[in-house]
From TrEMBL:
It comes from the Bacteria. This is Hydrolase. One of its GO terms (cellular component) is cytosol. GO terms for molecular function: magnesium ion binding; phosphatase activity. NCBIfam families: Cof-subfamily, HAD-SF-IIB. Coiled coil: none annotated. It comes from Selenomonas ruminantium.
Amino acid sequence: MSNGEKSDTNIKIAFFDVDGTLLPLSVREPSDKTIYTLKELQKNGVIICMATGRGVLARPKLKGIHFDAYITFNGSYCFTDEEMIHSCPIPKSDVLQILENTRGMGRAMVISNEKFIVANGMDEDLKTYFSFGGESIVIDEKFDEKCTDDIYQIMLSCVSSEYEKILHGTKGTSVTSWWDRAADLIPVESGKGRAVKSILEYYGFSKQEAIAFGDGRNDIEMFGAVGTGIAMGNAVDEVKSIADVTCKNVEDDGIYYYCVENGLIEPS
């Protein structure tokens, strides 16, 4: 049972984080109840939007589900099948500075855009980080050359005490994370919260007509951009403290039960 009394029957759009929200970590297919929920929401006229830290190429294809819109790279690249809604690459000078900083720290890094996702090395934490989404990353000999392309996200293994050193000398890049042994670097002018606002403006919906489900720290801004932010039962305490409501764990079909209890869908 969700721990709030809000009714969401006037909801027109729902945003869903992926890892830890739609999918348990290291699981590639959602439960039947999650699939049912997404389909029923669409049947009931609710727009569904994937809101993930994953890139365009790494977003999961869920069986029988076609999302209406996508927020990828933690908000740096947002689109529908028909058009681009929001695009915000990391400043090129920052990418090169971070490359220099991480090399000095002996850290490998991964860069990604809508065309490629490549690394200049690998370590155990980075392998684990990408294994959560069932991904394996290619080490590219032309990595430095690719750093001059538009880059929407940089990923590397690190702990919070290293953030300052990683970002030393940069002006337009910030850190977002949902795991304590790795981080995603995104443009300062990005983030899931800004992306949600762009999507709402695109569709002409108000904040109060939107809900969002998430479990990680990178979902906190998104909760602030919607009328109701719903933390998964498996979310970290910091996320639960910010959310309006906490539902069941992802493994216990929290999204399904929240939507049934709040009149968004009929029980399966």
